Structures are given as structure tokens and as C-alpha cells.
Amino acid sequence: MLHINGFVTATRGRNGGLRLARPMAQISMGEVFRVFEASVPFAECFDADTNTCPLVATCRLRGYIEHAVEAFYHALDGVTLADLITGNCGLIELLNMAPVGDGTCKAPAGPL
């Protein structure tokens, strides 16, 4: 899915592997979540093929849920892979499997 949707490129061979297809600052988390979650209905009533809810014709909650789900994706549209990676000491240490003490880490700029 990551390759098909243009997030990574794959290279075969001895020195092959995966690389980002775009700069980290151009990969929106909203876009990534939509790729992986769009086909998964939030609730049973959102899947016309399997819905058995007897309230679907009169339910007012469904519209509010649709609005909330879109707000969720919209909030993630403003978060990039760079926001999650840059200066994330814990992640760097985890991936390097060694402590990072070079002063390059910084606190998150977002709402956390």
C-alpha cells in the first residue's frame, strides 16, 4: 500500500530497500490514514453491504459521526511525517538502539 500510493519507492537487489518517495514534510498523516482506513467503516451503519441496524433510516447520530471522522482526518492533514520524526529523541534512540546525547533533539512543536 505504501508503494502503490506513492509514499515509498522500492529498489530490488543487493543494495535495495525502501526509501521515501517524497520529502517527509510532504507526507501528510491524514493522507496516510485515509489510505489505510478509508475502506474500514467507522460503524456498521456506514457499510451499506453489511448494515443491519434498524435505526439507519431515522438515526441522527450518523451525520454527527461523519462530521467527527472528517474532523479527525482534517486534523491529521496538518501533521507531516517530518513533524513526527524531526527531533524525536525517543524514536531516534529506539531505531538506533543507542542513546542520543548530541543535542539534536527538541521538544515537539505540536499540541502534545
Shape: elongated
Number of domains: 1
The amount of beta strand, in percent, is 5-15%
Uncertain runs: none
Mean pLDDT: 85
Question: Gist?
Answer:
By secondary structure, the chain is mainly alpha-helical. The protein contains 4 helices and 2 strands; from the N terminus they run ββαααα.
Structure write-up:
This protein is mostly helical and about 110 residues long. It has one domain (about 10-95). About 35% of the residues lie in helices and about 5% in strands. The chain is built from four helices and two strands; from the N terminus they run ββαααα. It has helices at about 30-35, 60-75, 80-85, 90-95, and strands spanning about 10, 15-20. It has a two-stranded antiparallel sheet with strand order 1-2. A hairpin with a 5-residue loop joins strand 1 and strand 2 (about 15-20). It is elongated, with a radius of gyration of 19 Å. The mean pLDDT is about 85.
Name its key features.
single chain; 112 residues; mainly alpha; two-stranded antiparallel sheet; 4 helices; 2 strands; 35% helix
